[in-house]
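hey so u asked for the seq, here:
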Amino acid sequence: MKREERQQSIINLLVEQKTVDLDDLADRFTVSKMTIHRDLDDLEQSGVLRKVRGGATIDAGTQFESDFRFRERQGHEEKLSMARCALGLVEPGMTVMVNDGSMAAVLGEMLLQKRPLTLITNNAAIIDRLKSESGITLIALGGIYSAKFNAFLGVVTEEALSRLRADIAFLSTPAISGRLAYHMDDNVVRTKRAMIASAAKSCLLVSHQRMGHTALHVMADLADFDAVITDRTPDAAILEQFRRDGITLTIAATQDMT
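ran it, structure tokens below
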């Protein structure tokens, strides 16, 4: 088996299992552990996975967010639930801003239900899906393309955002702790902050599984958002923290049942 084929097989295993074991991989592909180490090094350098003791994972760490290709396959029902809830904040005729990420990509497609709209985004999945749709004035933010986030980022993106204004911005985050939202990539953080600054209102979308975690960079205070939406009810301690901080949390699963 060629190196490229073996590495793709490792990616496929990570999609199914989230973690892989170094010894198991060496046995599976009948190669040395050193060969697997080099494969994992290559994939980590590409931002696909995070090496851990004895193997690798695609679970987020304080300095790592898994590749878009993995995230778009995870928790689809939960993303649909949050997107449907967020859609209730949108009215036809609005100018809407949507950030990078697989959660945002689900919402982006749903926005077709609210056309006519003006949509501002750096999310390549949304740009590709909506570029030919009638009733959508699509403003695609330029910048440096990141395959890991499937989005455009950097100074060009931030400069474009500074010259635009939206009625509402929808942002996602991989980590919340206390009253702060976090992200592990500084380019993504700057773009998200620019979106908050360029919108009259902003809404944060976050999985309940990402609560109680931190990442390398503080992205924003939860008080900066007009709405915070999650998929399911988090732990009681986290709910109490929200209450103490005066942050209103909308549970999408509860909204779906009403």
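Residues 71-251 form a domain with the Rossmann fold fold (CATH 3.40.50.1360). The CA atoms of residues 232 and 254 lie 8 Å apart.
lmk if thats what u needed
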